[in-house]
Amino acid sequence: xxxxxxxxxxxxxxxxxxxxxxxxxxxxxxxxxxxxxxxxxxxxxxxxxxxxxxxxxxxxxxxxxxxxxxxxxxxxxxxxxxxxxxxxxxxxxxxxxxxxxxxxxxx
Length: 107
Hints:
The chain is α+β, with helices and mostly antiparallel strands and 107 residues long. The chain has helices at 3-16, 23-27, 59-74, 76-90, and strands at 31-33, 39-43, 52-56.
């Protein structure tokens, strides 16, 4: 499969009904600015495993991904997944309780 085909599949999932996994929001990893031009988008889906990592400096693609992610985060399905995910993460031991840096803790 070519990169454009993989991107088309990802955009269909983001824009077409698969719910983005809220861990990207929880850990702050969904969108990272790498430099003056490049942005990295990372994530997976709540209801379908399709991990992605896209680095681009294409302003049109950045805008399309930003828009799709914003729409996802405003959807009722995403909000429900975020709450379920919050409850899941609340069950984790507090930072430092395991004698090591726990996932999701500030360093």
